[in-house]
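Re: your question about Olfactory receptor

S., sorry for the slow reply, the queue was backed up all week. Below is exactly what I fed in.
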Amino acid sequence: MYFSSRVIASISPTMNFSSFHLTGFSGLEQQYPWISIPFSAIYAMVLLGNCMVLHVIRTEPSLHQPMFYFLAMLALTDLCMGLSTVHTVLGTLWGLSQEVSLDACIAQSYFIHGLSFMESSVLLAMAFDRYIAICHPLRYSSILTNDKIIKIGVAIVCRSTLLIPPVIVRLKFLNYCHPHILSHSFCLHQDLLRLACSDIRFNSYYALMLVICTLLLDAVLILFSYVMILKSVLAIASQEERRKSFQTCISHICAVLVFYIPIIGLTMVHRFGKHLSPMVHVLMGNIYILFPPLMNPIIYSVKTQQIRSRMLRLFSLKIH
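Result:
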């Protein structure tokens, strides 16, 4: 149990049956004002960084290319992820509210998981973009037309939003007989299932199927695309050309690692880390939510020359 019996007793009598208690860093409640400072800075960087990437791509005609359209989708997804959790995470740390209604919790869970699937889909689309650019450069502009990109974007949105409702909506009809204390300062599907005493087999099996058909399938396809890219690059005679080809993939590879490593870590902690300190669960949850949206704008600003030069120009104009 994450809280002492004294805390549970103080919560349960006053808490509505359909309300849940969000968990910050248990045992460090007195330090919340200090802990909130880095978290506030991280959220500010997430919002500012992704907004700047979107602004640069929108206002710079030379960046109106498939690669940067997909990057804009990634930045928009990361921005929405930050917006979907900022009110509960900072609300908990600032002491504004640690209770969330069941309906609000289910809605936040839908957005968090939907945006995770969306980010995975965008990363797969970006891998496809790199595969076409390197393995079929002469057909790149004919394959990735604006119409194709719009269709890919619509498919990503539909895949990320229409597959989740059956498992998320059912959370509304479960009985929650365990103490209504969540493991994180935001709501996750598996966290709500842990508190339910109803039959959760449908949710468990359907969620597993979703993970296999989205996150796992995307990871396999991304890996396969890079096997094909590597095979194509190694066939290039010029070492300089090889280096340039690999250089165009560095940012995407970093973004893939930044996304999948926290997911794997959080899954391992939830499955096999029940004996670990609650602090580990809270820390891994926050890394899963915040690390990709924080790092992606930094990665693409540093590693992508076109974005970096536009960012520097934007800052120089603001200074002058």
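The domain at 19-314 is CATH 1.20.1070.10 (Rhopdopsin 7-helix transmembrane proteins). The CA atoms of residues 201 and 207 lie 10 Å apart.

Happy to talk it through on Thursday.
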